[in-house]
Amino acid sequence: MLARLGRAGEPSDRHQRLEDHVGVLAGERPHGTDERGVGAHGVVPHEGCGLVVRSALQRVHGTRVSGRSLGRDAVPPPSKSVAPGPPRTYGRRVESSNGQADAWTGRVVRGDRGSVRVVDAEGGVTTARVAVPVSDPLDAPCVGDWVVLVRTGDDVAVTDVAPRRTLLERAEPGGSSRHQPLAANVDVVAVVVGLDQMPSLEKVERLLVVAWSSGAAVHVVLTKADVAPDADDVAHDITTQLGAETIVCSARTGVGVAEVAALASTGGTLALVGSSGAGKSSLVNALVGDEVVATSAIRSDGRGRHTTVRRELVALPGGGWIVDTPGLRGVGVTDSAGLSHAFADVEELARSCRFGDCTHQVEPGCAVRGALDGGTLTLRRYESWRALQREAEWLERRTDARLAAEQNRQVRRTTREQRRFRRARGH
């Protein structure tokens, strides 16, 4: 599949330009850490501490700032034990010679049309316009992104976005091959399921594929346990049938809320995804200890209301962050990467087939068909795997075709510009 700009862990020209702009202060490390960057909250990611804007200072003051650039190898892999420090260590202002901060870094806490709200190291929140040229919505700054802010007079603009460590995204509704970013640089994705309106296992599997594709750790959180006497049985079924770690909780009674909070207790970022009415907003309020997100009752027909209308990063009392996302009614898988995690049992069987290109239909020596016949693999799970696999393959083909067409258009534009330039010079 052709490389796309902005995908987590993938290189891009824009990311290479960012490495020319952003570096780590030589010999400086976050407060409370040793020379390895290890402190009370574990390893502190380089993108969260000690960032300086080199070229911005050079343009404004002609000052050269030394330091090694921030590459992808400098960012630790996603893990619950590798998480950012407390909010106070996020970002760093860069003071100019006259004491005015002209360029600094921060993290996007909310996105609006054409602008974002960014929190800096001191906890200050700035609204800035987005000045990053993007050809794909996936490249636009989203909640959780680390960004470079530059002030010119009264104007504050986001001039670049740091390479993403993880990216939670979904395919845009309507069969489009474009992807929509939901949250960046998250450590754990929690698939939230309301026990009062338990969705089908196929819906949960689809959400798990999207969650695993982000590159973060994944849990299933069953909410509203106070109205479900069989909550523990449902959790056992999800764990055994879907292979996902499951937490049972209730925002009303407080049961299991501490377990959910522990997912981000080391200063990490937890993202909640799920259908409308699953109890995400109530869970956020329970985790924060205050009503920071509006909630509403389930409709009379049992369908949830869209209480959350935008994605927002909320600070937790324990030092971590939580992202509440709007309810997802149509969830399109982005690629086949998440299938290997969400369907690890089926993928392992498929690797044991006699033929590498086995279609799992009539071929001899098919381990998948053998598991179906032997009862160790259910027909429901097999059909769900095949359906999501076909959807991911179709989307990848559509995406490749779109990217190839965009590349051809760019080549034609460049050729026309070169011809006009040569004609203007009389060649």
Automatic annotation (TrEMBL):
Give the E.C. number(s): 3.6.1.-
Q: Where is the composition biased (Pro residues)?
A: 75-87
Residues the record lists as binding Zn(2+): 353, 358, 360, 366
Localisation: Cytoplasm
Q: What is its main location?
A: cytoplasm
Q: Which Pfam families match?
A: RsgA_GTPase
Domain EngC GTPase positions: 184-329
Q: Tell me which UniProt keywords the record has, alphabetically.
A: Cytoplasm, GTP-binding, Hydrolase, Metal-binding, Nucleotide-binding, Ribosome biogenesis, RNA-binding, rRNA-binding, Zinc
List the CDD domains: YjeQ_EngC
Specify where the region named Disordered lies, as residue ranges. Answer: 62-99, 406-427
Q: Any one Gene Ontology biological process term?
A: ribosomal small subunit biogenesis
Example of a GO cellular component annotation carried by this entry: cytoplasm
Q: Which domain of life is it from?
A: Bacteria
Which cofactors, by name? Zn(2+)
GO molecular-function terms, A-Z: GTP binding; GTPase activity; metal ion binding; rRNA binding
Q: Oligomeric state and partners? A: Monomer. Associates with 30S ribosomal subunit, binds 16S rRNA.
| Similarity-based family | Belongs to the TRAFAC class YlqF/YawG GTPase family. RsgA subfamily.
By its UniProt entry, which HAMAP family does this protein fall under? GTPase_RsgA
Q: Function of this protein?
A: One of several proteins that assist in the late maturation steps of the functional core of the 30S ribosomal subunit. Helps release RbfA from mature subunits. May play a role in the assembly of ribosomal proteins into the subunit. Circularly permuted GTPase that catalyzes slow GTP hydrolysis, GTPase activity is stimulated by the 30S ribosomal subunit.
What is the name attached to this protein's record? Small ribosomal subunit biogenesis GTPase RsgA
